[in-house]
# Entry
Amino acid sequence: QEIDVSGRVTAKSDGSPLPGVSVVIQGAKTGVATNADGRFSIRVPKTGTVLVFSQIGLANQTFTVNNNQPINIQMVDEVGALSEIVVVGYGTQKKSVVTGAISQVKASDLENMPVTRIEQSLQGRTSGLTITTGSGQPGDGATLRVRGTTSINNSEVLYIVDGVQVGGGIDYLNQADIESIEVLKDAASAAIYGARAANGVIIVSTKKGSRNGKMNVNYHTYLGTQAPVRKLELLNATQFATLYNEAEYARTPNLVTPRFPNPSQYGVGTDWQAAVFNDNAKVQNHELSIAGGNEKSTYYSSFGYFDQDGIVATSNSQYKRFTARFNSEHQITKGIKFGQNIGYTRTNSIGVGTNTEYGSPLGRAINMDPITPLIETNPAKYNAPPYSNQPVVRNSQGLPYGISEGIAQSEILNPIAALAVAQGRGWSDKVVGNAFVEVELIKGLKIRSQGGVDLAFWGGEGFTPIHYLSPTFSTTVNTYSRNSNRGLFWSLENTISYQKSIQNHNFTALIGYSAQKNKGELHSGSLQGLPVDNLKDASLGFSVPKENRDFGGGEYLNTLNSAFARLTYDFNEKYLFTGIIRRDGSSRFGSNNKYGIFPSGSAGWVVTKEGFFPQNNIVNFLKIRGSYGITGNDQIGDFRYISTVSGGRNYTLGTSAGLNIGVSPDALSNPDLQWEETSSADIGLDATLFSNISLTANWYNKKTTGMLLQIAVPGYVGNNGPIGNIADLTNKGFELELGYNKKLGDFSFRVAANGSFVKNNIVFLGAEKEFLEGQKITPQGLEVTRTKLGYPIGSFFGYRNEGLFQNQTDINNYKNAAGSLLQPNAKPGDIRFADINNDGKIDADDREVIGNPTPDFTYGITFNAAYKGFDMVVLGQGVSGNQIFNALRRFDLPASNYTTDILSRWTGEGTSNTMPRLTLDDSNNNYSRSSSLFLEDGAYFRIKTLQVGYTLPNTLTKKAGINKIRFYLMANNLVTFTKYKGYDPEIGGGSYGIDRGFYPQARTFYAGLNVGF
Amino acid sequence: MMRNKNIKSTVAIVAMLLIFVSCKKDFLELTPRGTTLEDNFYKNETEMMQGVISVYDVMQWGTTGGYTMKMPLLSAASDDCWAGGSSASDQPNWVAYDNFNMSSFVGPQGGLWNKNFSGINRANLILSKIEKSTVLSAGFKSRAVAEAKFLRAYFYFDLVRWFGNVPLILKELTPSELYTQTQSTPAQVYAQIEKDLRDALTGLPPVVSAAEKGRISLGAAKAQLAKVLLFQNDNTKLAEAATLFEDINRVGNPYGYSLVTDYAEIFNPSNKFNSESILEIPHSNNAAWGDWGWINGGEGNVGTQFIGMDSYVGDTYSSGWGFCPVTLDLVNALKNDPRFAATIIDGKALKATGATYNARYQNTDYFIKKYAPLKAYRSTIGTPEQNWPINEIEIRLADTYLMQAEALLRSGGSATRAKELLDAVRARVGLASIPATLDNIYAERRLELATEGHRFFDLVRTGKAVAVLGPLGYKAGKSEYLPIPQTEIDVTKGVIKQNPGY
# Structure
């Protein structure tokens, strides 16, 4: 008595139809799948037959057939993290059968969590991912590292947005548009992307519309105020003068009259930090999204506006961003799907120098003497030179900004006056989009073709008016400069995938081809001597003499093509295997070595699915997995393998000094230049314990070989050596992620924690080469870091500081084997340096690795709670095991100011064993040698986010025709626990771990509103 | 249903076609734009000339591997000037040369070695390109080859005086040759220098046009050859040196050389390429440079900035960095000489008029004047410190007068002519005649050519360095030469050998 039954399967969450749901007669092998509209039809042998509905990520449902009436099934998400779907390269996978190391952050985690840049939303949420902000300045980027620094040349992660590789970071994205972010950490998961995947891959998916026929409109806004978290305690004017005198006496013991005979007359003086910081910097954000669709088509569109002022030098530190997005998908026919995603971003920014000793506003505020007034109000002074006879900078009342009377030196200037002189702004327009066609030829066999584009226009302009800031910082001619640039990246990818299940054997196969091209054009020009005095009136259109014009430009071009394949197999979701191979060709290598082949494999075992594994309530799920793979890196400049010639080798000829162009080769060529390779081995386990605790652990070892460095050739060759594949390094580490969910009546909460340990080590730098020079600071080029064999990249490098000499006897007792004093110029109160190599003298050979700017351990904690309409999120993040080189003070300029720590200086026997005496001449090199004197513990724990929200009850909002109203209060960077004495212990950017006046992240307070219609 | 299947197939076929299109080999073989390939440049006389200009460019360099401007550096090495700067740790390479306590790591040798070999590499390259070219006119080819050979000889002359045993590299090196070059003896290097200069004589014009001043003339090549002969301290070569010098020095010489009446005008920046100038390296603020990371890319003379008074405020001069204060020894030698005012800035006299400057390391309150930073010539475009348009005169007529007098006396030539030459140099500044003895000629060179970079090598070649510079640290058997840069020994794994004493 067979019965034909039919019905429809929809998602309970939004009512959208669910295609591809498996409908099987329980106990039998026969079944059907729902169509694109979620409908199915099946013949069952009799009434009472049980049908089983199943699909990845959804909880199985059963239905007992009673008659032939239409069946309506509403399926819900499977409970627990392991039922989640994660995005892997060119596809998705059920997390429970993943064999690679992947971390995921979902839209719900990001909802209503304001950040200025998307990367910040990842901070503290995933293990193995280190995110350090380049600076706290609005618009400044972050440094991302997956499992340590992979290469000397380039360790940037690869970004894939909606399937398109994106250059220049993802700051152009609007946060509300994000659906999910996955971090692919090991070779097994990343190898499918081949080139550049060595450093890890971050996959971003943007939101789509829904099929339930409804239109959803959502508006989100927040307003905020920002302030610096802390200020340094600097000496006031009287203290400054007193200590300067002390240093002068120390240099000249029989001095009769010091530089400042009456220190107390100067009082407190100028608080330069107060002048530079803004305790109430504004930030605002607005996002509007409209989404909807029907069974055939869905769409998602959004608009965003973001505006942020900086907390340092607000007039010159701002960031504005406008975004627009339109995503759509269309089921053209049963087997053909078309989709597109396109986003546009416009940014305007003004910025100041940060973390540099060469004239950043914060650096100046720290070092500027407090005796100089912010604004000179004494007529006797401002009617005298230099105010009276130089083009000094004045405020709106016509009063001049103060100029140091022979105290400050070099770049240390009145920071407010310097800001008035530094006029400039930058902008960018960026379009990132893709379109795809997906054809299902037969069941399980799909062909997908996708094209992607990243088109960017960016530029900037600057104006320096005639000014006088100090005798050495002045100009009598103004300068206007402008640059405009265009970049286009396109990619074309075609894949064929096949999925097949034979009883409990599940296979997927993927073959693909990819081509990419990256090109750009750069234009710049400048004029001098314009008849204007401000940026707004300046233009490249003015006529000026030819000698006052300068124009230039450049181009870049590189291409990549790839073929790749992946095979996955699992048996009953218990025994898991994946194999990947990729062949990449890069235009950056010579003919002999254009192609690199990058294989990888991984396997997994779900132990809890074994029959012998006892059913218990403790270990609900346990999977062990391992992987190994090789990925490549071609991030060197273009055309390094051939010999090019360039200009700029000019000569002046003739009595009228005409310029003659000279051309010669740039460097030797290296036709053998080839890919840099990274191999990665990973062992991991995933588990669910006590039904509500999730655990993931990974051990890994990454090794990079053939890192691209310049080959050293003898100087007698007369030209630069070429780039060659020379150096090797390793990263080894351990990662852990824990999650805990609990529901107590109306109160529910979730705690998630993660931590990462990583050790970076240089194992080879070329034959007989033991180190690469590192960062240098101050105009004298003091070497502070070194990349040394056996140590992490960029380790701190310097002398070992063994305390202070307390008296002359200490100095006289510090002798070498020959009986000579090791530090003959030392006086009591000076640092005792170690003769590490025991050669009887203190010199450059006594330097060693003294610290590491990279943390050993990085961790994060997230706490979510909900009670009726209220919700709360607390996010904490921290690091440990690293040091910071505190170079806030320009110790090469004797008249720089100090923090009040200097009050702990050595002033007599026994008064200090750490802080050396003050002296103007630094004859013992206390401050002009890199040593542990400058290293501080860089560990910190920071409460990054605290948010409390309230959602109005449905009963109220429905009456007003509103779906949802939620408002919230939020604080960012509320508390930071650290021993570090500078502004901010989180120091990223170009000089990682060295603080030269790092632009700190702000403490921010927000009020926000989210309305859904 | 049939229609749907056709659509699917069509899409699949299109996708496959795209794959094949993208697989074309040309996709990965790209040609750079904005930069030129060495292989397809040098196609015509214009491009070839640009290659020649790149060889000349190296003559201007003063900041290879640190500051290595010849005139101030050699003055600091001699008893004319101290190193100066802000302290002994400012420019340690200069202080080391000043005190002759250089090591294989510390000293100016790295920059000087690399600069000169860069010039040689460029000269060898352009000679190779010219030889292979089939499109050059005979005249162009002859002059370009002559210039390239002159310049190669010029660079090797500096190398052999500073380092002694240096590799002789006369062509572009193949990869297998990069690490295996061995050193030649000074005699061998000088032989090659002479050969290059003699070859150059056949292709150079006697007079260079006003628009081309700065290119090598026949007179410059003869003067350089004669100087090279003199410097070998081989008396059998001095007769030829004297003959070559005579061709340059004689009244009515075909090169237009004559002594400038007013000594100070020789160094006036508004009087470039004057009648006394034989070999002059031009500088300008063309290109208006501003890149501190590659100062050599500009056309300016950083030596001028170097020697200026630190934080100077006052008339006439612009602020400098306080290097190379003049020694009291030179001040005392010149104080009663009419050339004092043109040679030395008296800082205390300036202070008495109200000017100010910082007294820096080894300050004597006396400063180099011949190429000092003048307010009137400070560039208003680019970075002023990098764009001083003050030329360097490497050889001038008074120098060749004195060298010829020396050559005559040492070779047994005309003592009368030697006296005429010495007297002419002195009479030009109003000084009386004195006997033409070698000692008097050497003493005259010190006064006439002070701070122009000649003193150190004069002391070395005449054997007086130990007596004069010994108290300053000079050691015979060591200090005549700089150390070979340690990196050179390391990279060649000892094929290049260190100079004795280091």
